[in-house]
Amino acid sequence: MTNDYINEKNRNNYIKLKKLIKNMPSFCSNYFLGIEHTTSLLTRINYAYDLNVFFYFLVNEIDFFKDKSIFDISASDLEAINTVDLEHFLSYLSYYNYYGKECSNNEKAKARKLSAVKSLFQYLFNKDMIISDITQKIKAPKLHEKEIVRLETDEVVKLLNIAENGNNLSEGQKRFHKNLKERDLAILTLFLGTGIRISECVGINIQDINFDNNSFKVLRKGGNEAILYFSEEIANALKPYLIWRSKKLAQKNIQEDALFISLQLKRISMRAVENLVKKYCKIITPLKTITPHKLRSTYGTALYRETKDIYIVADVLGHKDVNTTKKHYAAISDDIRRQAASKVKLRDDDKIL
User: Fold this and answer.
1) Catalytic pick among 197, 245, 267, 294
2) Residues 6+ positions from 207 with CB-CB distance below 8 Å
3) Choice among 113, 183, 245, 296 that is catalytic
């Protein structure tokens, strides 16, 4: 896997993080330096976004901070915050105005922002920059389990059929489909047959594919490289696409490392992949919101049903915590409920007179 795409992506993320840190109190620079070796770059960016909201809340909602700008806040000032202020913060996050933009947060988003605040306070306490860590007295919002959304087996078949033949697409969609069906089918098949993340899919380069043993290299979440394997069914979807790709690039005499390319013959964007998945899935299951991550859940569920081994599923999906994996196959509880539906008979035909 060449480093060009990954290096550019990381460079842009580092620039984004630096800009976010500049909008915070000066002591936050040391905090982000302190957590650099224990967190991923994306985690730090998310923490930076969340802490910006927290400091905005302080100077706009808490009396002690109302005469201060965000840049005037010192670490010791945070000792003025009490548990009621933090509870106010969680309530505030339900619906608030952030620099003129109306925002809202669900339970999961609130829990993430509280986690960012707790991480900051813990760091400051450990460095003796504050005398106590009041955030430890605040519990995260209770997260209610959501119904797992994924495609059923028959829906997977319908999805791949539509991607292959273009049936039920609008006239406008059919024009694009005529040019892109090999690519779209290859992408959907790879998602459904390997469970890779959208970032992993977009990051694959042409030299990362090996048909000798049907394997490919991906950069996992956290920055680790991994070798994954695919079936002959996936190989049969990839090979026609590679012929299409080669012809398109040759026509314009363009060199491109990316495996999956756009009509502009550049690396396809994550947004384009999201729209691709949404377009086809909306036709087969209009009541479900299917994203690339839901295709990952579909694969995780299917793999668990075949193997009955959660550790195999965790390894293939690249999960460090097996509890994360459970979210991908928990939908098999649907099967149990369906089976239960036919177990209790309200009328026994043999006993009807």
Assistant:
1) 197
2) 1, 2, 257
3) 296
Residue 319 in any domain: the answer is: yes
Q: Is 175 a catalytic residue?
A: no
CATH number for the domain spanning 48: value is: 1.10.150.130
Whole-model pTM: value is 0.80
Domain count of the chain? 2
- The answer to whether 44 is a known catalytic residue is no
Active site residue 9: no
197 given a catalytic annotation: yes
What is the DSSP secondary structure assignment for residue 45, as one 8-state letter?
H
The two three-digit tokens of residue 130, written as one number: 């504050």
319 is catalytic: yes
348 lies in some domain: no
Does residue 221 carry a catalytic annotation?
Answer: yes
Catalytic residue, chosen from 44, 150, 158, 319, is: 319
Considering only CA atoms, which of 293, 296, 300 is closest in space to residue 274? 293
Flag whether 55 is in a domain. Answer: yes
What one-letter code names the amino acid at 266?
K
Rg for the chain (alpha carbons), in Å? Answer: 25
pLDDT single digits (tens) 19-75: 999 999 999 999 999 999 999 899 999 999 999 999 999 999 999 999 999 999 999
- The answer as to whether 145 is a domain residue is no
Q: Are 227 and 257 found together in one domain?
A: yes
**Alpha helices by DSSP H, the chain:** 4-22, 27-34, 41-61, 83-92, 107-126, 153-165, 171-194, 198-203, 232-252, 270-284, 292-307, 310-317, 322-329, 333-341
